[in-house]
Request: fold
Amino acid sequence: MRRRALWLLACLPLLAQESKWSYKPEDLWAFQPLRRVQGSIDSFLPSGAPADRVTLLRRVTFDLTGLPPTPEEVDAFVRDPAPDAFRKVVERLLGSARYGERWARHWLDVVRYADSDGYSNDYERPNAWRYRDYVIRSFNQDKPYDRFLLEQIAGDELDPANSENLIAAGFLRMGPWEHTSMSVAAVTRQAFLDDVTHSTATVFLGLTAGCARCHDHKFDPLPTREYYRLQAVFASTQFEQSPAPWMLGENQPEFANQAFRIHELVRRNEARLAELRELARARGGNEKTLTKLTPGEFERSKVYRKRLELYQRELRRYQPLAYSVASKGAPDTFVLQGGALGSTGEKVTPGVFAVAYRFTTGQRPVPQDLPVTSGGRRLALARWIADPANPLTARVMVNRIWQYHFGRGLAANPNNLGKMGQKPTYPELLDWLASEFVASGWSVKHMHRLIVLSAAYQRGDFPPRRLEAEEIRDAILAVSGELSPDTGGPGTFPEINDDVALQPRLIMGTIAPVYTPSALRRQRNRRTIYTYQKRSVIDPLVEAFNGASLTESCERRESTIVPTQAFTLLHSRFSRDMALAFAVRLESEAAGREARIDRAIRLAFSRLPATEERAKALAYLGRMTAWHQDHEPPKPQPRRPVVRTMVTEQSGEPVEVEEEDNPVEYETNLHPSQLGPETRALADLPGLRSRSASSFSRAAWMTCASIGGRSARAPTTLPLYTTSIPAICSAATRPSGRGWPTAWERRTGTCRLSWSCPTCSTRRAARPTGRAASCPPTTRAPRSAPRARPSWTCFRRKALLRIIRATL
Reply:
């Protein structure tokens, strides 16, 4: 064994040399110059039968705007006999302000946008929201991608007097970063340099440059020396809060109303701190150091002081500042051996990866060396990346666009076009798209037109995809009639479940303020892209449906199937409230039960219900209305104050701190007690499922049964009104436009999440939270009926036993 180990050590230099220089041409495909080939998208891909118009409209509307089409839009498209009817729809969607909101979300996934720093304190970034609005404006304006790139890498060097450019340069600070009094400045500075170097290479070039920080890249021709040459470009980059006049569309009229709440909280904490100072002075202590206070009083003073600091930081949201950078000084850069800050090696000058232009044979040469002066380093880098001779930039972007339309990129790893990334399935098509992208003036909307107007995109056997978390929430809001039209401005705070909102969080030795949703429904119910993105408090709905990481660049959203997704749609406060709002909308837009059912299916599925579906829904509504007439819901209870318990540093004794209540009058959502029996029954319209687990109807609500519907024979009567109408909105809005369950829905809706009613043994799709409600008296069985154990417990137990046996 020892002899073998010594042989491997002796061979390491040879293996390293072979790994460093022996690259196969197919592994370096992304560095090759673009091949200009003739044709179109359909000349590279097989043909197929086209989809029907309703399916096609839902597909393209979700892809370009992230929202479902309205019944009126469906009717207009279906009845339009013009041969260019679909082209007119595409132009309307590309011209909509909702387009920029949808496609900005894709870009923000890649750059890791958030409104807070992350790490333990997770301090707010008060003006980061202006970068989010900048990205939305850029997509809506169809800003050329090369200009979009220049502004983000070097906007401050390009034109420091332009607010747009200063805001765009905030891209360089999007990663998580924290510096406190306990941090070492050199360490946190190096952390920023490593982060921005890797992020720039990943986002714009599709290279995993971070792998070359400690040693030469194991798989791609990226030496460590060139990694630090690229890092030297950012060595003069310093953080800056630059004055930047307000831009059009940044929702300035709302600033005064939103800032009023924070000003009131500042006033309250100042008053409480003044009381403690007065108390210390009365006891003969020092007003500044607050001596003579009890340990509990001193601990409260720490809370009030920290709250004042946080609230003052929050008020900067409403000041015309840019979360940006500036070039200052020209510090030297050295190769860090093994990536260690204390092991400096060779001094390097700013430069780029040589491999990116070694293969541009026949094209004008691109210089590898960049300016060594303080200013202009990043601008030179940005122009090198945006140069048409650079083979990586256009390939990376068109590959991302293709992925967001088809669910998978032509190269399946958009952030890694190197050897370890998957090679493109249609390399000629990728090169044709990249060449077309550059020839069109780097127009993103031009690429959308090419893709969605192709026969490949309009095929009937187009692979369906599950909607992303933001699409699900936005679609629920849109169908229920609660979606706010407001755009721009600081992030708003939606209502989330108390178990997440009330979680205690520490911030610099004390407790952080409790999560408080925005006071007005119009603010809370804005599109998800406008919600406050805090790295330590994620919206449970977004988290359940595989929202993007706010720490790592998200090249592609995962699509998992887990029980918490069904529970989130069925039992969350958001689902309950939107179900009631949907029922009220149906009553206002249609008269009579039959018309309301038709309207519900039209809004959710863009179609009319079948005769059998309508009959089942009418019968169910009749039964549930009668039941609700006999069972009045409880009145809403006032919220109790939130009291935190913490331990004092001086004595170790517990001390209680009561959280401030909202100083602004809170506009509550609809409550069941405010509505009549007919409305509550309509809001409780469930999935109808027969006793047979494999028997499903094609009704719209049957799609909901697949993610937690209810039995047709014994309708559930939950006091929380955990309706499946929001589930209709989310499950029905698949781009495929189908209104019946898929195979995975049948599997997940009929096996592992079922339970039995404790009174009638009727199988349910998901166990409700809180107190289990009984079935209506007409279907109640004797109480001696057996209660089934949730089958998922058995699966967990069996899996644990298998692990134990394998270990032994």
